[in-house]
């Protein structure tokens, strides 16, 4: 396929292996195209009864999109209008849609780091999916840390997480482990990393027609090893504070809570882009009533507006380019974020008939 994506068929199962370990399997446009090509080829191929996507590295399943590429492409032309950048997001979101509605069992082995675009290729689907986490799983939608928002369908899957957990994860960008992923409904089963060789043997030899069931049976003996996580312990607190429909009210609510969790959450939010926390909250509230296609179309508009705005370029600069972790957010203070600033991210960037994802349904 490509240097960084390998595919093969064995035992009527199509295997996609992400193999860009030095970049934590960050997705490039070529990688998005390779995954899409394989899934399209296998969709109507009777020789393929199920699909497994995994990594060649224990460090990461996929750390997201290639944000260094985003930075270089976004700075190449005025207002971040690179054609390659446009192609990347259009094709990535189309891939997310393809995965969500894939007609065959789709198994994602989320070992190691699973963030951003990695969530996009793991969270799709509702009936045919199987999402496996391990004790090495570090899961997040951390986009607010780089001046972006939880895209790749985040407006859909985060807004459907129980209570206000999805709001908390999207607005803060916090990282969670296996227990919290299972509690939030962002994973299906737990397998210890030490047992992955046995899982690999199963994947290579199981009856493809009952692959999800076989994985559940394999994982059942390990479920007692998953300790209670933070989200379960703080569920009532999260639901109370993050039920507000503006970030200022969320922060005010947290400020009245003297718990260690509330203080830590405020400290985290103080490091995020004030503007993009507000944009994210609006995105998640809108996403609750949208279909997958509608969410992806909304996010495609939002990402165009994000690169025009430039907040994301400053965020990437601080984290990846200069690595000073001192972004100069604009506005710098939450109280300076206006309703008009937030609404600007949702203003149509194309007529409906010309939207890059207009054919999704």
UniProtKB/TrEMBL annotation:
<dbReference type="GO" id="GO:0003860">
    <property type="term" value="F:3-hydroxyisobutyryl-CoA hydrolase activity"/>
</dbReference>
<dbReference type="GO" id="GO:0006574">
    <property type="term" value="P:L-valine catabolic process"/>
</dbReference>
<feature type="domain" description="Enoyl-CoA hydratase/isomerase">
    <location>
        <begin position="13"/>
        <end position="346"/>
    </location>
</feature>
<dbReference type="InterPro" id="IPR029045">
    <property type="entry name" value="ClpP/crotonase-like_dom_sf"/>
</dbReference>
<keyword id="KW-0378">Hydrolase</keyword>
<dbReference type="InterPro" id="IPR032259">
    <property type="entry name" value="HIBYL-CoA-H"/>
</dbReference>
<dbReference type="Pfam" id="PF16113">
    <property type="entry name" value="ECH_2"/>
</dbReference>
<dbReference type="InterPro" id="IPR045004">
    <property type="entry name" value="ECH_dom"/>
</dbReference>
<protein>
    <submittedName>
        <fullName>3-hydroxyisobutyryl-CoA hydrolase</fullName>
    </submittedName>
</protein>
